[in-house]
Automatic annotation (TrEMBL):
Record-given protein name: Peptidoglycan-associated lipoprotein
Keyword Zinc tagged: no
Membrane topology note: Lipid-anchor
Function: Part of the Tol-Pal system, which plays a role in outer membrane invagination during cell division and is important for maintaining outer membrane integrity.
Quaternary structure and partners: The Tol-Pal system is composed of five core proteins: the inner membrane proteins TolA, TolQ and TolR, the periplasmic protein TolB and the outer membrane protein Pal. They form a network linking the inner and outer membranes and the peptidoglycan layer.
Domain OmpA-like stretches: 42-156
Record's keyword terms, sorted: Cell cycle, Cell division, Cell outer membrane, Lipoprotein, Membrane, Palmitate, Signal
Length: 156
């Protein structure tokens, strides 16, 4: 019985000591964790600039809102000269595979050409078309189709 009491008191003392240990916040060294994504990263592009532009049905021409996003991407790339990107053209699931691959490539090229026209070196941008093979939204309705008609810029 006496051994059980001593063991119980020992456990209470141990738990009490752990509960009062000061947490290491990095404040003693002056270091702190960044408050957001790492500058120049994929997460930074997505959070602070926008990584995708959208297209109308069967079109590869840039809309005004797409140009605004792409201008932000060009400015971001000017700031982070070491970053290379890939622009992937995508389509909704209507149409043949061949047609959608070609349309996706035209969409990726349109985004790339805009970035180049704003001063981004073409060697920093690669393009690819996924056609209808990589939908970002599932469904067979206009809302899903509209989300899948895009060009997505990602950091390589």
């Amino acid at each position: 019985m006496r051994l059980k009491v001593v063991a119980a008191l020992g456990m209470v003392a141990l738990l009490s000591a752990c509960a009062h240990e000061k947490a290491n916040t990095g404040a003693s060294t002056g270091a702190s964790m960044p408050a957001g994504p790492v500058p120049g990263s994929e997460a930074d592009l997505v959070a602070n600039v926008g990584d995708r532009v959208f297209f109308d049905f069967n079109k590869s021409g840039l809309k005004d809102d797409a140009k605004v996003t792409l201008q932000k991407q060009a400015d971001w790339m000017a700031k982070y000269q070491q970053v290379n990107v890939e622009v992937a053209g995508n389509c909704d699931d209507r149409g043949t595979e061949e047609y959608n691959i070609a349309l996706g490539q035209r969409r990726a090229n349109a985004a790339r050409d805009f970035l180049v026209s704003k001063g981004v070196t073409s060697a920093r941008i690669s393009t690819i078309s996924y056609g209808k093979d990589r939908p970002t939204a599932l469904g067979d309705n206009e809302e899903a189709w509209a989300q899948n008609r895009n060009a997505i810029t990602s950091v390589k």
